[in-house]
Amino acid sequence: MSASGQTRTAIVTGASSGIGQTLAGHLLDRGFRVAGFARWRNVPPPARSGFEPVTVDLSDPGAIEPALQTVLAGFDQQLDLLVNAAGFGRFPPHRHLDPVVLASMVSVNLTAPMVLCGLCLPALEARQGRMVNIASVTARHLGKRGAAYAATKAGLLHFSRNLFEEVRKSGVSVSTLIPDLTATPFYDNLDFAPAPDPEASVDLQAMRQALDAILDAPRGTVIEEITLRPSRLLIEKRPASPKR
User: Fold this and answer.
1) CATH class of the domain comprising 9-237
2) Which of 34, 100, 154, 172 has the fewest CB atoms nearer than 10 Å to its CB?
3) Is the pTM of this model over 0.85?
4) What are phi and psi of 179, to 5 degrees?
């Protein structure tokens, strides 16, 4: 509940798995009413009070606004938090990256968050709400693979920084979580993953705690960025079976 006694509301993208699923569940634990955006393909939505699954393909920018308007109508135009957690990556040599996959990755990882941030701003401004975008450590560190994926996450980070400067007078905060390797289904269709060692990936509990730090910061203080990295770099190679 908010200080006014009203139930706080949140939209979380990528809510069907991984970091998005984790943060959506955590927000429910905190008493939020949560709309979870995802394709919900072969994944049953959680049967939890306060959770509303929203079926939307974020690779289609035109599908976002109708889904959002339905959610905001159900929330009586009240929105306290937007978490952009949806994303996927493909990491072949760039010359071998399928242009259709590239376009989808840009749409999901960068275009969709930018569209949602813009469309949600009026409702967030009315509540002096928060935006939290999930980037990646690849936005800051150079690697030998995944140039396009890194570019989408660097774009999201730079967008978040600039958007905060644009909207800060309205009372809306913009924060970015920047995780390194995290053991989620993100790696299911890739030829590498964090090693099973618990010190080789960011613990999802740390992601929950990072979100708490952003949400619980005193009014007037914005935690702009939090980077989370495992203490050890241990990567496991394995066969890939890409589906996208």
Assistant:
1) alpha beta
2) 100
3) yes
4) -85, 150
